[in-house]
């Protein structure tokens, strides 16, 4: 008797995939250079994985794509909390702006922590890829298995972040902005280089004293990326935001500031830029596009595994990769 389930699973990752419209981002570059198969899983195999009727391997790839690491979740939550707190504060009483900013920021931190606890306790992330969970928790990393211990780590981080941000002269100046100065819709920014969209997450975007400004937050509390890669990612984001500002608001000078949080960098501000950003993007795009065949088709065999056990051990896409390996032997 034919095993139709096995045939579907095998076909799901051996047939060519139609490539989506191409764009570039620092994350895309990082994944591509870390492991070609991980890149294939994230940017091609995960297409349509939100649909319950797609093959299991595509759904697993989609789940892997949206599972955040601990550092990524902290960084994203900081950015979102600051943006939402300032948006609420800016619409309030001008005489109480700075006090209200602290109040709303604490409220956002509290809401994010409670939301995380509910998702982990009830395993809501298994039914909705957009519910919060950490890669480290799913794979039982030391210090991440126990939910209560993990939540306490998050609380401690937000307590420290609040202390740093509320005392920062820069954030105190920002808290005095008018609502019309805040670009709360700018969660993602798109620059264009040689016709290719270039995406970043800029953090808080606003106008101040005739300048276009961005304040970002990045956290690093695990060893998933080196300190050099961490600093490079910050300088790239700053540089691409500068490129974005020149394209969309050419009459405004651009400033970028990133608050860095780690055991060694507690709220240190980074303003570094990458001088050769356009050349880096162009070369990276050429390498990625070289693996797309005529007809805008991509094939799994063109995206080999990196073969580095240390990289595989901490890879977000490992479960989908194992499924691909298993189906090769069906």
Question: What is the topology?
Answer:
Layout lengths: L3 H11 L2 E2 L7 H9 L1 H10 L10 H11 L3 H21 L6 H26 L12 H4 L8 H21 L1 H6 L14 E5 L2 E5 L3 E5 L2 E9 L7 H22 L5 E8 L4 E5 L6 H13 L7 E2 L10 H5 L4 H11 L2
Parallel strand pairs: 5-6
Antiparallel strand pairs: 1-8, 2-3, 4-5, 6-7
Helix pairs in contact: 2-3, 3-4, 4-13, 5-6, 6-8
Structure overview:
- By secondary structure, this protein is α+β, with helices and mostly antiparallel strands.
- It folds into three domains: 100 residues, no CATH class; 108 residues, no CATH class; 102 residues, 3-Layer(aba) Sandwich (Trna Endonuclease, Chain: A, domain 1), CATH 3.40.1350.
- The strands form three sheets. Strands 4-5-6-7 form a four-stranded mixed sheet.
- α10 links the parallel β5 and β6.
- α3 crosses α4.
Q: What's the overall geometry?
A: globular
Q: Return Rg in Å.
A: 21 Å
Low-confidence parts lasting 5 or more residues at pLDDT below 50?
1-9
Mean pLDDT: 85
Number of helices: 13
Q: List the strand order in the largest sheet.
A: 4-5-6-7
Number of DSSP strand runs:
8
Structural class: alpha+beta
Q: Level of helix content?
A: 40-55%
The termini sit apart by 15 Å
Q: H/E order of the elements?
A: HEHHHHHHHHEEEEHEEHEHH
State the domain count: 3
Beta-strand percentage?
A: 5-15%
Major beta sheet, specifics? 4 strands, mixed
């Amino acid at each position: 008797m034919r095993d139709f389930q096995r045939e579907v699973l095998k076909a799901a990752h051996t047939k060519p995939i139609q490539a989506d419209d191409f764009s570039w981002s620092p994350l895309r570059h990082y994944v591509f250079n870390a492991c070609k198969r991980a890149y294939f899983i994230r940017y091609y195999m995960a297409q349509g994985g939100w649909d319950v009727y797609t093959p299991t391997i595509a759904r697993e790839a989609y789940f892997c794509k949206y599972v955040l690491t601990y550092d990524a979740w902290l960084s994203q939550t900081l950015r979102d909390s600051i943006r939402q707190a300032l948006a609420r504060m800016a619409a309030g009483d001008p005489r109480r702006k700075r006090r209200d900013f602290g109040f709303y920021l604490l409220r956002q931190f509290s809401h994010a922590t409670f939301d995380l606890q509910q998702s982990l306790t009830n395993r809501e992330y298994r039914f909705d890829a957009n519910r919060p969970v950490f890669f480290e928790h799913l794979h039982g990393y030391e210090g991440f298995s126990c939910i209560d211990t993990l939540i306490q780590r998050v609380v401690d981080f937000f307590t420290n972040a609040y202390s740093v941000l509320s005392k920062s002269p820069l954030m105190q100046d920002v808290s005095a902005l008018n609502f019309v100065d805040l670009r709360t819709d700018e969660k993602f920014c798109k620059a264009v280089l040689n016709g290719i969209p270039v995406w970043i997450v800029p953090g808080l975007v606003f106008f101040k004293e005739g300048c276009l400004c961005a304040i970002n937050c990045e956290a690093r509390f695990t060893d998933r990326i080196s300190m050099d890669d961490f600093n490079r990612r910050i300088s790239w984001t700053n540089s691409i935001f500068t490129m974005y500002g020149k394209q969309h608001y050419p009459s405004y000078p651009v400033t970028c500031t990133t608050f860095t949080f780690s055991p060694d960098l507690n709220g240190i501000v980074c303003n570094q830029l990458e001088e050769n950003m356009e050349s880096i993007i162009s070369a990276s795009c050429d390498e990625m596009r070289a693996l797309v065949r005529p007809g805008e088709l991509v094939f799994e065999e063109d995206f080999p595994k990196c073969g580095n056990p240390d990289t595989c051990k901490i890879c977000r896409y490992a479960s989908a990769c194992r499924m691909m390996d298993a189906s090769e032997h069906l």
